[in-house]
Design goal:
The chain has about 280 residues and is mainly alpha-helical. It has one domain. It is built from 8 helices and 6 strands. A two-stranded antiparallel sheet has the order 1-4. The chain has a two-stranded antiparallel sheet with strand order 2-3. The chain has a two-stranded antiparallel ribbon with strand order 5-6. A hairpin with a 2-residue loop joins strand 5 and strand 6. The radius of gyration is 19 Å and the shape is globular.
Amino acid sequence: MQSSPSLSNTAETVKFAAWFHWFAVALLATAFAVVLATIYAPGLRLPGNPAAPEVALLLLASGCTIFGMARQLPLENVLLAAALCALIGGAAHLLGTVTGIPFGPFTFTTEIGPRLLGKLPWAVPLLWVVAVFNSRGVARLILRPWRKTKTYGFWLIGLTAALTMLFTLALDPFASRIKHYWFWTPAQFPLTWQDAPLVNFLSWGIVTLLILAFATPALISKQLSHRSTPDFHPLCVWLGGILVFGSACAQSRLWSAVIADAAIGIVAIIFAIRGARW
């Protein structure tokens, strides 16, 4: 019989993939804990690069996001979607560094690390992957009661863009005012949030719509599935980011940002759990 070894290999592969995913999740949880420890204990000095905890957190969040999605979709589909997200999001920010369009005038600093093509920090494409696909996972939880309606796909894309905007609304004060990864150049924008023009967040939403227009076909399962268990992994990663941003803002006494982060997190939890219980 030649089929038994094949089945055995398949089962072993699935088992290894599941083990690797949960191992990566444990590492990600540890990275979140370390980053929070450095926020609440400013005197704590870890050996090596001071930015190492944030670097590890971004890398692990990116990996867990991709492998978490690969539990439900073929890995090649997930990698294609992630590549499209990183490419389109990175290209938008590369354009922004040169022209100030579409996010508004800003400048990356050396704090964010080495740059691709001499202009785009390596972390930015990964940030797009984490923000967009975990926002999509949260949107799937919220919209779970309506997943069989004809307009579900359009609502999913629109809500993903809105949640990505909220994620970056929480991210920006942390990245620009606390960590100084970039700074905003004063411009004649009538409305700003923590020095960032509101057009920045609107542009994140618009670019997210563009990303999903290309990536969504790769994210649609071509096989019938009886899976009914809601996936809370994206919600945990998404909320973990909000918690880190809000904690850092609290330590820096940016109270309006803390209130906004708390409101964003609470509302997301309420609607996601409500949808998941359906």
